[in-house]
Amino acid sequence: MVVHVFDTPAQVAQAAAAVIAAQILQKPDSVLGLATGSTPMDTYRELISLHRGGVLDFSRVKSYNLDEYVGLPDGHPESYVSFMKRNLFDHINIGSYSLPDGRARDLQRECESYEQAIKDDGGIDMQLLGIGNNGHIGFNEPGEAFTYSTNLTTLAQSTIDANKRFFDSIDQVPRQALSMGIGTIMEARSILLLALGEAKAQAVYQMIRGPITPRLPASILRSHARVTVMLDKAAAARL
Ligand code: GLP
Question: Which of 22, 121, 177, 221 is the most buried (most CB within 10 A)?
Answer without folding.
Answer: 177
